[in-house]
Amino acid sequence: MMINRRLLAPALGVLAGAAFLAIASAQREPRRDPANAARGPAPTLMRPATPTKAPDEEGFIRRWLILDPIGSNGLTESVVQAAVKKEYFANQFTVIPHDGDKVNVEGADLTWHAVDTTLYNVNLYHFAYALGKPTSNVLFWVVTVVDCPNELKDVRLAIGSNAASVWWVNGKEVIGIYGDRQAVIDDGVSKRLTLKKGPNIVRCAVVNGGGATDFCARFLDKDDSPVKNFAVNLGEAGK
Question: What is the pLDDT of residues 114-152, one digit of tens each?
Fold first, then answer.
């Protein structure tokens, strides 16, 4: 069966007002107030308000933990693979962060932020801009916890990103897409894998060269239909 694909059209404007103001005000240290930024389209990112979040009707995961961006240059496979294999902070391939946790990267304290997106994709340009962080030549570490009520066999992780990205499920690298690309739904699809009963860790690194940057992710079943019988539960991170 052919997988339905459509081109993402990420907004290039600036995140305004309440969405990221809620995130900023909830952190341990003062942050830039996005309300002072230039006005743009309606906000798409907000602080989670419920303990768990189900995927949307098309199976897209809408809740993530995102680390402040880290400087990175180059989008070819060899350069991106070298960048994501570099150790920026302790236990970067195993840590399950919580909202507000900090790591030290080259002498700078970076913070993990829990965010929900109102769309199927996560706009990393808006995320970084609202916090006064760089949006170009950067690497974003992203993590979520997919909590399954039952074991799910023969599913595949399907992703899209602008630009390059590398993805892991339960510690195993499953997808990498490279180059200066637009985010396309199901642009990269993993081999078949099993999601265990309980928490499953999805981790990725998105590398952006310049301009807009975003990503989306969902699981597909053996018939290429969206998997929806799970919830994202970041509280499972400590278990």
Answer: 999 999 999 999 999 999 999 999 999 999 999 999 999
| 82 φψ region: left (φ > 0), alpha (ψ -120 to 50), beta (else) | alpha
- Tell me whether residue 8 is in a domain: no
71: CATH: 2.60.120.380
Neighbours of 117 (CB within 10 A): 24
178-213 residue pLDDT tens? 999 999 999 999 999 999 999 999 999 999 999 999
The pTM (predicted TM-score) of the whole model is: 0.83
Residue type, 4: N
Residue 10 domain-assigned (yes or no): no
Q: In the chain, where do the E strands start and end? A: 45-46, 63-67, 70-71, 102-105, 108-117, 122-123, 138-148, 152-162, 164-169, 172-177, 188-189, 193-195, 198-208, 214-220, 231-232
Residue listed under structure tokens 């305004």: 16
The dihedrals phi and psi of 26, each to the nearest 5 degrees, come to: -90, -5
- What is residue 126's DSSP assignment? H
How many domains does the chain contain in total? 1
